[in-house]
Design a protein that fits this description.
143 residues; mainly alpha; 6 helices; elongated
Length: 143
C-alpha cells in the first residue's frame, strides 16, 4: 500500500519533468537553424543578434541547466546594456576607433561587459549548454 502511495505521488512529478525536457528539446530543434544562421554569419554582433533566441531557450530550459543559461544570457544582456547606455551600435562599434562623444566610463563599461562575455566561465557555460543539447536532445544548438 505504501509503495502505491509513493508511486502515485511521484508519477505526476516525473511526468512533468519529461514534458519540460521535451518542450526544451523541441525548442532547441525549432530554433537550431535560425541560431546557426545568426552565429555563422560572422557578424561582430552575432551573439547580440542571437539574444532573443537564447532568451527563448532559457525560458524553456530545465532547472538543471538554468545556471548556464543565466551566465550566457546575463553576459550578453550586460554587453547590450553597456552598448545601449553609450548609444553605440554594436555592429559598427570599433574599440580602437570609438565613436565621437563616447566617454571613458562608457568605453570601460563596454570593455568590461565584453570581457565578461568572452570569459572562460561564459564560454564554459555555452559549451555545457551545447553538450547538454547534444546528449539529452540529440541535437546541437547550432549546425
Amino acid at each position: 500500500m505504501r509503495r502505491v502511495l509513493v508511486a502515485a505521488l511521484l508519477l505526476p512529478l516525473l511526468a512533468g519533468c519529461g514534458s519540460d525536457q521535451d518542450d526544451y528539446c523541441d525548442a532547441v530543434a525549432d530554433r537550431q537553424q535560425e541560431l546557426s544562421d545568426i552565429v555563422g554569419s560572422g557578424e561582430p554582433d552575432a551573439l547580440l543578434q542571437a539574444l532573443d533566441v537564447f532568451q527563448q531557450l532559457q525560458d524553456r530550459a530545465p532547472d538543471d541547466i538554468s545556471d548556464e543559461w543565466q551566465q550566457l544570457v546575463g553576459r550578453i544582456e550586460a554587453l547590450q546594456d553597456a552598448l545601449d547606455d553609450a548609444g553605440v551600435d554594436a555592429a559598427t562599434y570599433d574599440r580602437d576607433d570609438p565613436p565621437a562623444g563616447l566617454s571613458d566610463e562608457q568605453a570601460a563599461a563596454i570593455d568590461a561587459a565584453a570581457k565578461e562575455l568572452g570569459s572562460g566561465t561564459t564560454l564554459r557555460a555555452l559549451q555545457d549548454l551545447d553538450q547538454q543539447a547534444r546528449d539529452v536532445c540529440k541535437t546541437p544548438l547550432t549546425l
